[in-house]
Records
---
Amino acid sequence: MFGMSHMPKAILLIVVLNSSLFSQLNAQIQQLEFEKEVICVILNKGSYIIGELKNETNHDLEFVMPGGDNLFIQRKDIKKIRRTSEGYSFTKRGRFNFDKGLYCSWHPFVIFYGESYFRGNRGFTGLGTQLSVGRHHNRRLSYGLTAAYFETDNYYDRLDFGYWFTAAPIAAFINFNLNLRGPRLYCTAKLGNAFKIDRGWFKDIHSGLYGAMGLGIVFPTRSLSRFTMELENVFIKSAGLTGPRFIFEEENFVPEPFSTYAKYITLKLGVSFRQ
């Protein structure tokens, strides 16, 4: 009976001790993870060394090489130090990706492929340019705003109507990295509005909702800039009144209202900074 009466207290004591030990172990693991930092040391002579930082003073650095050997380097021989705590993620040969902070990307060449002006033949339909400003939320996720300018054409088969238009989309975007090492492949999604710019023949056509989904890739370098490209499915709301495609059709042409989503595949080539 004595043992049975003290059983709940014993169980409670075991739970408390286990909880305390687990809390201490978890704190130690978190401390080790926090203290573990990988650095890339760029020497005055131009070479670089990547390893796990073990200790640093005002005079030298001690870090562990990938093979497990300890290495000491004097600060007077160091040109620059990049650290994982500063948002760098290192790949092969001293190249790196960014995990923190703001970034900017510019795609001066945006190539449109879709239903062309001449009776829906699929092919090259237009060109554009796009500028994006984003923020790294963490190693996987980033988000921001993008603005573009493009001239392209489309074909509306229900009315046998081909047209071209000029627009300037402004949208929010979100990117998700599919991998963390080497060239980063990411999924991207954009949603916003395409503002019409009156140019050329079809002034009664207005653009509207703009969206895109696709894949992108960023190639790591040893500098702030790097090459980037995206392949996307794009849709743009188009509505208004039909118009003649040729001058000689203008006199007898009767305009009709229409509304459709112009759909394209776009290939974007450009450069980014801190992406």
---
Amino acid sequence: MNSKARHLTVLGIVVIVILFFVFWGVIFIRFTYYGRIIKNIVSDKVSGKDREAKLLLSQANALTKAFIKNKPQEIYAFFNSSFQEKTPWDSFYNAYQNWLLNRKVIGVRFTYIKRIGRIGHVSSMIRFNDNRERYCYQSWILTNKGWRLVWLTNFLPHSFLDYGETKSYDIQAIKQLALEELFERGKIKLLTRDLKLPKTIFIKSEKSRHTSYYKVPGYTVKELTLEAIKNQVYKTDALYYLEFAALRIIDDIASIYIDIVPLYRGIPNLMRRRGLQLFFVNKAYPKKEPEWIFEEAGAIW
């Protein structure tokens, strides 16, 4: 073999080696960076090394695989039963197709994973075959059935979020328990530690009630419209009013958000609207007659 032929042979081998590493480099990036293969380990992206944090990551990984395999029925199955009771499969499937827009998901990478009590927060970027990414926040809740999806932002129409609020009797009972936790067992101190609590509790309502549904020993509870509250506040010692911002029942868990809104400016230790989330567990689930008990406080803002 002459020198020229030898040189071309060596050059050919070098090109083949370069192409080999480029090919497998692309495969490596695609399968790792974008999360097509995500090892089920708890890294610094997961808060804590407890068992439930690991299970949260495992569920998020499984959801990733369902997206990549284009399995909408598997994605639907990750949602909690309260969501599924309110949202028929056909409606979910149509919304999924509208979101997909004839594209294909080729990868999902996590940017933030954290567990706080019963709530799991997962931020992710979904990559499509048109090389575009879209942010998707995954909200999870830990129920007696394990980690179940509450919501996926930038995925479903906002109207689908209206679920878990249809059991009027349970809602009234949970609001009563929330007031007891706030005032009888001192949970309101998580928001206003040094504030002297007035003996009048105003609750903002769509309609004013002559007699409130709710009772708190040692306090006068009034359910009124905001206009009626402002008209009566000067006759009382009230400094704020309460607003039940959101309440959702998911499987055996009830989550309620309560806002505390100052009625005057410059109130020490209550300079702005504050809020608290409380969790209750139905110990009798799935029996018809619920047995709600307080479990823990959640988010504070």
---
Amino acid sequence: MLALLLALAGCGSAKKDVLDLRGDAGPGADDAGENSTDAGPHGLPDMGGQGVECPPVGAGTPIASVGACPFGPAIPSAEGLALPCCHRASNAARPDGVELRITSLRFDAPRSVAATTRPLITGLFQNAIDEERFNWVVQVTGGCGAVGVRMGGALRATSGALSLLTGRAPALSTSNPLLADTARWDPIDVLGTLDDEVLATEPIARVVVPVFDAAGALIVEAPFRDLVLEDWRLHEDRTCVGARDTSVPLNEFAEGGTLRGFVALEDVLGIYLDQGPLDDFLCRFLADAPDGSVDCVPSERSRWRVLPDARCEAEGCTAGSCAPETTCNAWSFAGAISAAGAEVI
């Protein structure tokens, strides 16, 4: 997942190959508006219901929160987080230009990374979200009906605003062509629908979101294909998707929507996870492969305990249209999320 996994891992063909982006506005860097895409809200076409008069946006049904927002020395500017969903900015004044940051992500599939079977993975990833080292932005342009949706990774500035990563991915030396693409972190624009305050999107062909450490060094990347947002119910003037709930194990958020998509085998080759007991190639981890010293190879597929269940081609990915033992080349991904208002520059 997110190339899935984990807040602290090595990315690249070397076991602990990391890249320091601190000089490029890593966590704690000064504000840099170079990546602002405003030209109209978010630079997206104003779909706005395409001539349909949208109903007024109000606070909606109030949502209850349980407990306080994340706090502690590792949480940047914790005093700036507001309940019920731990948002840093309200969307009340910009209902046609909503800006959100994912605040929790629980892995449900594949089972090799699911919270029910591998809670350590969800816990470690949630730490990266809470500490704003993993910032996944969703922007929505339009009042209702057909809307434009932009999704991508971002870096946190000292002000708490988020800077999109357009053109800022490093070209890593690896046999994986995805990791050599300097545009892989660029935000992706797709069409969506916003009806009765519920957001959904068409498939996003590919999105790659990076995770950094506290010093601003790249530690892992999360590549997805054909990712869709489903049943994202907006509350509190379109500021919240879900709410803070410290009674929920691991995430401590009550989720308000889902993500579904695919993780392609070829996209994760060469990525190494090195965080305590999570010490293996990402592909082998997704496959729940027995201990070994090499990345995923076809000759070992018979030993994988979680086989790929989908096939990705140039035109898209399809689940169940292949043989897991031979022709499947991707894992179906599913996760539950929450999100909260943020400021994107």
